[in-house]
Amino acid sequence: MKSPIRLGVLVPSSNTALEPLTQALITSLNGRLSSHYITVHFSRFPVTTISLTPGGLAQFELAPILSAAQLLSHAEVDIIGWSGTSAGWLGFERDIELCRAIQEATGIRTTTSVLALNKALELWGVKKLGLVTPYLDDVQEKIVANYAAIGIQIGEGMERHLRVEKNIEIAGITEEVLDGLVGEVVRGGVDAVTTFCTNLAAAQRAEFWEDKYGIPVFDTVTTVIWDMLRECGLDVGKVEGWGMIFRKG
């Protein structure tokens, strides 16, 4: 009989992309595992817009996220992952603090999309990163600055963003649009690309872009699941069709 592993995922309330993408990834993995069966369980907290306004920033205060994490603890999940990219503009230390708070409150280990992405960038030795987001100009500038502070260059021609503020609209961005944006940042001479927003329907496209351009594409829906699986001791190399990230454990 297969041993169960339960993944708990924190979701922005207006996100409609990450849950089906996450389920699809896990379904593809379950078909290849002989010893474990993975289930994914979701908990939401209010997020409707992405901006640097006081209201936009207040959405990512600790209390509502911690409340959502505590609900996941009722399901006795093995690990909790924040499937969101707010640390990109708030600062990476915010996710470190969030993980610490969740672990102290629930006793459950925790990771995030952005911390997992940063682990992947280090594993792959990425120094020049292509950044594709749906975000506003000032949000994008914060992300670029935060990566520069840890020695990762996102220079001229290496980033593209769509200036969308309302989160529910982000999931409607088409593959055709994303294809164009990824192609443009690749021409900037990058070592890797990240599609940096968990409401972008991009994870399923990563392997297509990798085959076309020959560099890794790290989607933030995928990064948190990759790290959660690693933390649970699973062989991430059994994941196929979701990008190069699963070639390194």
TrEMBL record:
Protein name as catalogued: Asp/Glu/hydantoin racemase
Domain of life, source organism: Eukaryota
InterPro entries: Iso_Racemase_Enz_sf, MaiA/AMDase
